[in-house]
Hints:
alpha/beta
Amino acid sequence: xxxxxxxxxxxxxxxxxxxxxxxxxxxxxxxxxxxxxxxxxxxxxxxxxxxxxxxxxxxxxxxxxxxxxxxxxxxxxxxxxxxxxxxxxxxxxxxxxxxxxxxxxxxxxxxxxxxxxxxxxxxxxxxxxxxxxxxxxxxxxxxxxxxxxxxxxxxxxxxxxxxxxxxxxxxxxxxxxxxxxxxxxxxxxxxxxxxxxxxxxxxxxxxxxxxxxxxxxxxxxxxxxxxxxxxxxxxxxxxxxxxxxxxxxxxxxxxxxxxxxxxxxxxxxxxxxxxxxxxxxxxxxxxxxxxxxxxxxxxxxxxxxxxxxxxxxxxxxxxxxxxxxxxxxxxxxxxxxxxxxxxxxxxxxxxxxxxxxxxxxxxxxxxxxxxxxxxxxxxxxxxxxxxxxxxxxxxxxxxxxxxxxxxx
Length: 408
């Protein structure tokens, strides 16, 4: 989708080029945002609980997307045409202002352990912020754009939406991520994932082993080579590998072996270095065993996260007004396709803390806390923080001009 098509969709309700902000005091904006969150609190928290109770895997979040879309439609949001091609995604907007604020809504869960990364909290917080911003959209001259972004845990739906052009009209992008504490400013690790397949030739392991080509041997050699290569990889590199197929019977030379490889690094540049080294290790296994090698990328590569300093500080200040101390920490944490968004437009992706009983992400224990009273408070206060950060940027002439120039 080209920018012209996006602009045409946005003009259905009026021309963003002619919508200008009116004079609105910060106190009045804050009151409007708070009132909107109070008005929509039952629906926003109901959304969080419903998504938490009904987890859906990456790319299959159809019920979550329907729930979010229904709430936005009831609040007067219109839906862009055309919609994204990715299943379980959507694009909706409110307002006609030139400054376009994107809220990214992710809602996928993990196999067997449900919302063990807290994406129900992420989704509800982003939607709450969008509803709050809609209440001040006309006064601040903004358009509130809500993007349903599935498959964050696997293939990276935000990267697909970037490819389709749904960020071409965006001035700034925001979301918050569930966590055990409030943190802003952090980066993330760039990440790439591969499916690895070795194909050999089967033979009886006792009667005719020399007739076979052992695909599992290739994988063992590759694993060993990768383990030895780790010392020479760029600092903070992470390479993870699991064997997903290693043979069918102990008395048959394995004709097929399969593995999943995940590579992470503090920067996309260093990730490419890691990928080159790992590929050579995989090729070594094929060469030594005589097997054929096939490497297939799994989903999209994730870039490192860059959080905008102004928006980060505005978020911290807003959260402080709610009695929440948000730490500033630039260390990379995990990986996210929000990193790809942040490479294009100024973005924030704070960690939103609530009581998780000491549990770590991606555990059933973490998931159990996702609909608690503490999580509910985090949803509403995070929505307030995101909304006020966007309002601060929209109201500051210098920041507004900076953000508008991102897409000119």
